[in-house]
Write a structure and sequence with these properties.
The protein has 380 residues and is an alpha+beta fold. Helix content is 41%, strand content 16%.
Length: 380
Amino acid sequence: MKRYLIKLATGIILMAIVGALVFTGCTEEEEPPPPPPPPVEEEEEPPPPPPVEEVWEWPEKLFLVSGPGMGVEALTGWTALMSADTGMQIRIVEIDNTLLRFKWIAQGRFFHNIDGNATTVEYLEASLGNNLRDTGPFQVRVLWAASQSNLGYMTRGDSDIKTVHDIKPGTKIVEWTFGAAMETTYSALLAWAQVDWDDIIWVPASNFPIIPRLITGGQADLTFFFPTAGFTYEAEATPEGISWIELPADEDPEGAKRYLEKQPTHSFGTISLGVPSAIGVRGLDMLSPLLSSADSDPDLVYHYIKWMDENYDRYKDTHANNLSMTLDNTMRIMETSFIPAHEGLVRYLTELGKWTPAHEARNQQNIALLNRYVEAYQEA
């Protein structure tokens, strides 16, 4: 009995302890869960730096070469503005000799020259005195349109020679002894007139300014010349005056065909620029480009012609020829000329969206053609 009471008391005590513990545990407040960590704010990436604007450094000096008269006059009209804008000292060397002008461009002594298709052909073909050891075909390139050459055949104001059909044996024609280009041109004129070369009386002229004086003075009857040249305006103002013969290609297509067979780089058109006596006369209408070497710095070419295009309105009225220095005329040259475009010009026209696959294909054909001339001359 006693043992039973002891067990009972022990059980009661244990129950009391467990109850107390349970009660105590129930009354303790549970600790709240820790707060969530604050959201991590993503740092925004800084904006990219602005693109570094290209700063083009123009060369300190630039040398150009040109024939006398209107070539120098036209160049001076826009190079003065370019020099003021860029800080370049632009120097123009005036020389009659076409061969030397091309030779110096090929050697890199001058940046560019202005010459027409006819004289370029004769140099590249190494014909008519251009076949010296250190001359001949080279990698020439077009930079930009230089002039829309309204050209013609000039006579004195009182001359009886009014059209190409009035040229007869005994006609006195000025022979340009300082340049080779006129032989092909005069051969074309005489082919149209159907007069033999040896039946003409040739009057030599050793420089450009004397040519119109030979006409107004009566020593010669006819010469190939430029309606826009300063010397032409002087001749127009003399008491004798000047006039221009008609090249009626529309009325005499067979004669015009004979002309173009001798001089395929010419094209016929109505003269619209130059002295009043020439305006409206059916003569020659051609585009002449600025020509440089393929080795000319492409960056310089790009910035040079970009300046010319963007500043056209500032210099177009400085000379009659400068009116033709437009993007449209440059594109005409790209579509008709046999001379390849310079790499810097291709870059600029591509940037403007003007250079097409057709232009590129023609340009590659022109390069391939020129390569054949250069390689053949080097092997000769």
